[in-house]
């Protein structure tokens, strides 16, 4: 077996820069371990240098390496997957080394580096789904609304403030500036969703492939990365103050009971017409949506091979 590790050294505030030396130490120790139950692979480590670089590396590596391993956060996993999709071949591995690691959580991967490496070598291949949001690949989630505005402001603030305060300032800025965009919902929503054909003030739309979202929130706890379905949560016609009071209930999985404001359902696609401007967040990447634009979500079942 041949493993290529694509490491994002900027992940987790730069802490992932030390990951290559830990991977090399793992293999050195494994070589001398008489109890090792897996075969030592040929491996190589490559570092990303800029946004989008992991996609280029993965696409080039796919024909030549048995497993292409994303080492970083959800953004790194997304970029590596896009490279494999463009190459139309290759098997994905994931070593969580980012801040949120939502996709790794959905895959039940160990947080400890050595444990994750052992599981990678003892694992088997199985298929994963991926989603598309206006043609943009997402492995874990895509969203529109308040959370996307927070992410937009946080990304801007991180250019000047590199600490957890960037998120706090981003949250406060979003609270002050957020205006819920009106959306036109499709008429063919399932019965449990309701609101079909209505115009609603969209506070938050989460379209999930995996069950973790936003750095550990299980906003859709039944979502699975390999079930051929999107899990969708829509929160509308709610004040910012009430939204803040709703957020803690996500940890207790009781937010879905608030049917006056919250609806959840499953499906293979969803299209919304934006009657106001907003931001689309795709695995952490921010994309502006203009008034009058449609946003289309789809699932692509079983198109990624994962080793875990």
TrEMBL record:
Domain DAGKc residues, every copy: 1-137
Coiled coil: none
One Gene Ontology biological process: phospholipid biosynthetic process
Span of the signal peptide: none
A GO CC term assigned to this protein in UniProt: plasma membrane
GO molecular function: ATP binding; kinase activity; metal ion binding
Keywords carried by this UniProt record: ATP-binding, Kinase, Lipid biosynthesis, Lipid metabolism, Magnesium, Metal-binding, Nucleotide-binding, Phospholipid biosynthesis, Phospholipid metabolism, Transferase
UniProt xrefs under InterPro entries: ATP-NAD_kinase_N, Diacylglycerol/lipid_kinase, Diacylglycerol_kinase_cat_dom, Lipid_Phosphate_FormReg, NAD/diacylglycerol_kinase_sf, YegS/DAGK_C
Cofactor(s) required for function per UniProt: Mg(2+)
Family membership: Belongs to the diacylglycerol/lipid kinase family.
Name of the protein in question: DAGKc domain-containing protein
Organism: Boudabousia liubingyangii
């Amino acid at each position: 077996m041949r493993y290529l590790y694509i490491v994002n050294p900027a992940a987790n505030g730069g802490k992932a820069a030390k990951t290559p030396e830990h991977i090399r130490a793992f293999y050195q120790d494994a070589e001398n371990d008489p109890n090792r139950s897996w075969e030592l692979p040929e491996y190589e480590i490559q570092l990303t240098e800029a946004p989008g670089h992991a996609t280029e590396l993965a696409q080039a590596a796919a024909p030549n390496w048995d497993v292409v391993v994303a080492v970083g956060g959800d953004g790194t996993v997304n970029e590596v997957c896009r490279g494999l999709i463009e190459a139309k071949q290759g098997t994905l591995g994931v070593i969580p080394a980012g801040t949120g690691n939502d996709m790794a959580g959905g895959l039940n991967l160990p947080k400890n580096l050595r444990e994750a490496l052992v599981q990678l070598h003892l694992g088997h291949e199985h298929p994963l789904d991926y989603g598309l949001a206006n043609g943009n690949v997402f492995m874990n989630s895509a969203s529109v609304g308040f959370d996307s505005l927070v992410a937009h402001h946080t990304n801007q603030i991180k250019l000047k403030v590199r600490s957890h305060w960037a998120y706090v300032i981003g949250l406060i800025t979003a609270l002050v500036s957020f205006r819920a965009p009106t959306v036109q919902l499709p008429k063919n929503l399932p019965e449990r969703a309701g609101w079909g054909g209505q115009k609603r003030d969209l506070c938050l739309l989460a379209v999930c492939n995996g069950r973790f979202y936003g750095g550990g929130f299980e906003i859709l706890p039944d979502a699975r990365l390999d079930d051929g379905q999107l899990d969708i949560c829509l929160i509308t016609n709610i004040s910012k103050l009430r939204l803040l009071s709703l957020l803690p209930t996500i940890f207790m999985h009781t937010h879905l009971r608030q049917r006056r404001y919250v609806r959840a359902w499953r499906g293979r696609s969803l299209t919304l017409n934006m009657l106001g401007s907003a931001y689309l967040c795709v695995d952490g990447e921010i994309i502006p949506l203009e008034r009058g634009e449609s946003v289309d979500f789809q699932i692509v079942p079983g198109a990624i091979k994962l080793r875990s």
